[in-house]
Design a protein that fits this description.
This protein has 285 residues and is of the alpha/beta class. The protein is built from 11 helices and 8 strands. The chain has an 8-stranded mixed β-sheet, sandwiched between helices. α1 (14-25) packs across α2 (37-56) and α7 (190-207) crosses α10. Bound molecules: nicotinamide-adenine-dinucleotide (NAD).
Length: 285
């Protein structure tokens, strides 16, 4: 199995910065790429902040934090990924953007490098089609927040070579994650189940005339959920949830996949959950 010595991360937004943090903490040299130097430095600042909090809480030694930060380098140029063994793409969720990135990346990296996408809702098979060597493309679907969530779905596109799946799986384990292997079907495993389930929960609010507090209580104490569905949607972000529902509905055309009007209206009004201070609940700024 190919050894992963250096990783590239394309896009240092919410997910990319989290993935880069996990990589440097696991001792892997990591090159992060942003579309501007300013955005790249901002991502470095966020990673430094999160690792600093771990030091304050006694979860990480100061020397380990310094060593992790020293493993992170930044660029705005895709050409700098030429010596990466694995590049994980975590850019904006848009097929045209991803196609352009995979076309460019596959012209830059070595023939034996692996290109992974962190897409949640697009087809890995379709993304891979833009690459020069689509058999070297795989899905590595991390969950948000990447440093805290253990699951990584290792997604086999139609074209993916078996050895590429195994290398990505082993690398996720090396990061301390709990990977699973799955096919490239809409929503993969978790979102395919969770999105329609959360939509049903929102429909039940009106059908059963129950408050968000009581619905959350019902699922925590009646179904053993660690967190109620309204709290979970507020945490994920109503815009992110509506977008994921829309993508699943477009692919599968099952009514349960479509976001209920109540949640679409809230998202349209800007009540996006925790990040805007208001969703099903209100939050302190
Ligand atoms: N946020 C989540 O909960 C979550 C969870 C799992 C997977 N994902 C997936 O991860 C990916 C990134 O999502 P995010 O939430 O981190 O988004 P984000 O908005 O926080 O970050 C998007 C990144 O894309 C970059 N970008 C924007 N336009 C670009 C362009 N034209 N070319 C190249 N890069 C561009 C931005 O600079 C930024 O780094 C998406 O594919 C998303 O579906 C998101």
């Amino acid at each position: 199995m190919a050894e992963i010595r250096k990783v590239g991360v394309v896009g240092l937004g919410t997910m990319g910065a989290g993935i880069a943090q996990v990589c440097v903490e696991a001792g892997v040299d990591t090159l992060g790429r942003e579309i501007s130097g300013e955005l790249a430095e901002r991502a470095r600042g966020r990673i430094d902040h999160f690792l600093g909090r771990k030091v304050e809480k006694g979860q990480l030694a100061q020397e380990a934090k310094d060593a992790a930060m020293a493993r992170l380098s930044l660029t705005t140029e895709l050409a700098d990924f030429a010596d990466c063994d694995l590049v994980i793409e975590a850019a904006f969720e848009d097929l045209t953007v991803k196609h352009e990135l995979f076309r460019e990346l596959s012209a830059v990296v070595r023939l034996d490098a692996i290109l992974a996408t962190n897409t949640s809702a697009l087809s890995v098979t379709e993304i891979a089609a833009a690459a020069v060597h689509p058999e070297r493309v795989v899905g590595m679907h991390f969950f948000n927040p990447a440093p805290l969530m253990a699951l990584v779905e290792i997604v086999r596109a139609q074209q993916t070579e078996a050895s590429v799946v195994e290398t990505a799986y082993a690398f996720a384990q090396r990061l301390g994650k709990e990977p699973i292997r799955c096919n490239d079907t809409p929503g993969f495993v978790v979102n395919r189940i969770l999105i329609p389930l959360l939509n049903d929960c929102v429909r039940v609010l009106d059908e059963a005339g129950v408050t968000p507090e009581d619905l959350d209580k019902a699922m925590r104490f009646g179904a053993g959920w660690p967190m109620g569905p309204c709290t979970l949607v507020d945490l994920v972000g109503l815009d992110v949830h509506v977008h994921a529902s829309e993508a699943l509905w477009q692919s599968l055309r099952e009514p349960r996949m479509a976001a209920p009007p109540r949640i679409v209206g809230m998202a349209d009004a800007g009540y996006l959950g925790r990040k805007t201070g208001r969703g099903f609940y209100e939050y302190e700024a």
